[in-house]
Amino acid sequence: MSIDMKFDGRAFINGERVHARDGQTFDSVSPVDGRVLASIARCGQADIDSAVSFARAAFDDARWSGLAPAQRKKVMIKFADLLLALGDELAMTETLDMGKPVKYARGVDVNSAANCIRWYGEAVDKVYDEIAPTSRNALALITREPVGVVGVIVPWNYPMIMAAWKIAPALAAGNSVVLKPSEKSPLTALRMADLALQAGIPAGVFNVVTGYGPEAGSPLALHMDVDCIAFTGSTRVGKQIHVMAGQSNLKRAWTELGGKSPNIVFADCPDLDRAVQAAVGSIFFNQGESCNAPSRLFVEEKIKDKFLEKALVLMPGYAPGNPLDKATVMGALVDKTQMDTVLRYIESGKSEGARLLSGGERTMVETGGCYVQPTIFDGVRNDMTIAREEIFGPVLSVLSFTDAADVVRQANQTIYGLQAGLWTSDLNKAHGIARALRAGTVHVNQYDEDDITVPFGGFKQSGVGRDKSLHAFDKYTETKTTWIRIDSPIRQASVER
């Protein structure tokens, strides 16, 4: 696949690629080397109104929602097949647009997005409605119906996967969707829309509007004809999404937000080498640009030195490299703004007294790209900025502990509650601490193992609602009760006898 690819940056509304109504655009700049990849439609209120109007018309005339689940299933499976067939193109696009290593873009992002779309397609004709256990003179039917028009706003770190987690259950359930990808990585979302139409999803059912948050995202969240808004991103913006949902039509708002996940390693860890590899690999995967990254590492005092010695041996293997090289495991941060943010956090760690063990500098400056060395701080306190705030970069904060109760208290001492990890050979300890940790997912003797069948989401200010699994259908369907009175002549005759 040539790196000199040509990209169509126009929005996708009602089955067609279109310019923004006012003709405005912005550049998509590659963090790999600073090149301009495409001119992207800078959508605003008029474009959002147009996309929502077409989505509403498509829903109201039931061109998609009126199809039998088995019919929607066939289209969704074809959609997934097309993603896989164009996997190399999509992976290269993702890498050029947001900087992740191409081997992960192909092996993880494309495959996971396709699997998600296929899974929800397969699932939709296997989800049954209910009959309530009422008295014999009533028949109470409990049925699921699509909510209508779903607005989706996704971040830049996993553009295809984050989009798939939301559009797949929403579309499978029969909704119409208006997707706004991040302005930092819009290209694969637009290509997915082309493929959805090719697979047989009718025009108007799946639309993609590109642009900045205040100009395109806010109008979508505030739109009076959007029935549901699903958002993944920062906690700060997530709070605004909930406010806008309330200010408008009280639409459902589902948010998956930030994290500052603790990873706790006890001295009785069953496999220290595996724990070290997981701790390092999970924080530096995707350049640390993951909301569930285990960025706070708690290591029991008696094994901390040994643990860090092993971790530092691994660091050269995570040196940033050209994301287009299939040997590269850590690529570029998404843009200069994010790179500068990460570097400021690193300076904050130094100034607040944390001990820099490795990394901490910008690298590969000559490429014109946005690369930062993988970084480890030791001697971190839970009240330091680097331990409290989500950095969203390759920075690991190491803290020590001696007491199980104290480490649980410290682990929970955060506004976030997305994920957590713990390593121990003691089954009782594993169960007890897993229950005590306030997080949507607790990993035990591993970190970041995952499957589409399990829900993803967090406690506290990590958001509300769950992506993935059958639970995601709850976000995009209404539960309706139909109560039918039954006056049975057979029962009456039986009573008379």
Report on this structure.
The protein has helices at 45-60, 69-85, 87-98, 102-123, 159-172, 187-199, 213-222, 235-247, 272-284, 301-314, 336-351, 385-388, 404-412, 427-436, 489-496, and strands spanning 11-13, 16-18, 25-29, 36-41, 130-131, 138-146, 149-153, 176-180, 206-208, 228-232, 252-256, 262-265, 296-300, 355-358, 362-363, 371-372, 375-378, 395-401, 416-417, 419-423, 441-444, 459-460, 463-464, 477-485. Strands 14-17-18-13-12-20-21 form a seven-stranded mixed beta sheet, sandwiched between helices. 38% of the residues lie in helices and 21% in strands. It starts with 10 loop residues before the first strand and ends with a helix. Helix 2 (69-85) packs antiparallel against helix 4 and helix 4 (102-123) packs parallel to helix 5. The mean pLDDT is 96. The chain is an alpha/beta fold and 497 residues long. It contains 15 helices and 24 strands.
* Main beta sheet strand tally, sense and closure: 7 strands, mixed
Decide which structural class fits the backbone. alpha/beta
In the sheet with the most strands, the strands line up as 14-17-18-13-12-20-21
Please, what is the oligomeric state? single chain
What number is the mean pLDDT?
96
Termini gap: 82 Å
> Helical segment tally?
15
Give the total of beta strands.
Answer: 24
Shape estimate: globular
Helix content: 25-40%
Percent in strands: 15-25%
Which spans of ≥5 residues are poorly predicted at pLDDT below 50? none
Estimated radius of gyration: 24 Å
